[in-house]
Amino acid sequence: MRRAVCPGSYDPATNGHLDIVERAAELFDEVVVAVLINKKKQGLFSVEERMEMLRATTAHLSNVRVDSWHGLLVDYCRDNGIAAIAKGLRSVSDFDYELQMAQMNRELSGVETLLMSNNPTYSYLSSSLVKEVATYGGDVTGMVPDLVRDRLRTKFPDS
Ligand code: PNS
Questions:
Q1: What is the C-alpha to C-alpha distance for residues 54 and 156, in angstroms, rounded to an integer?
Q2: pTM above 0.85, yes or no
Q3: Nearest C-alpha to atom 19 of ligand 1 is from which residue?
Q4: Is 133 exposed, middle or buried (0-12, 13-18, 19+ CB in 10 A)?
Q5: How many angstroms separate the alpha carbon of residue 36 from the centre of ligand 1?
Q6: What is the pLDDT along the chain (159 residues), one digit of tens a residue?
Q7: Would you call 70 a catalytic residue per the annotation?
Q8: From atom 13 of ligand 1, which residue's Cα is the shortest distance away?
Q9: Phi and psi at residue 17, in whole multiples of 5°?
């Protein structure tokens, strides 16, 4: 069984994230979308809400499951028999940090990281920008799944 993890905060998932998950699901027997819990960062959505939205938006992918984890990603990989971390690269500025994390994770545990080039359609997208736009009532249709867009609207009903 070739198993990979797509880790992230997913607060919330964007179409850029989901594109990477879909493509990883074609390469691996099983893909775990893991919501990494950062107790220092107060998210807009609770971890349960993020997981529920991810479950709904990946339901069409039979080899994808959703989980959460608090701690080192390499420990999650070890405990779950995961040999590869799959992530998307939007730009050169992403690359510096992603390479550093990939090297650290490999040093810590030998786990490999697959850095996949993002679909250029989504290269400008980030969860934080989407949240900022939604905060001020901007339309994020096409940037996130419709379900996520609707949940954002319920978070900012007056905008
Ligand atoms: O969506 P994000 O916030 O860019 O994802 C970053 C994330 C959660 C994948 C990264 O911060 C991470 O792996 N955190 C888990 C803790 C850990 O293993 N830190 C060491 C990384 S080398």
A1: 20
A2: yes
A3: 72
A4: middle
A5: 7
A6: 999 999 999 999 999 999 999 999 999 999 999 999 998 888 999 999 999 999 999 999 999 999 999 999 999 999 999 999 999 999 999 999 999 999 999 999 999 999 999 999 999 999 999 999 999 999 999 999 999 999 999 999 876
A7: no
A8: 73
A9: -60, -45
Q: Nearest C-alpha to atom 12 of ligand 1 is from which residue?
A: 73
Measured from CB, residues less than 6 Å from any atom of ligand 1 are 7-9, 36, 72-73, 101, 104-105
Instruction: Name the catalytic one among 9, 23, 50, 127.
Output: 127
What CA–CA distance (Å, rounded) separates 148 from 1?
Answer: 31
- Is 68 known to be catalytic? no
Q: Atom 17 of ligand 1 has which residue's CA nearest to it?
A: 72
Q: Which atom of ligand 1 is nearest to the CA of 75?
A: 18
Looking at the chain, list the stretches that DSSP marks H as alpha helix, in order from N- to C-terminal side. 15-27, 47-57, 73-79, 92-109, 127-135, 146-155
Write the pLDDT tens digit of every residue in 120-145.
999 999 999 999 999 999 999 999 99
φ, ψ for residue 85, nearest 5 deg: -105, 125
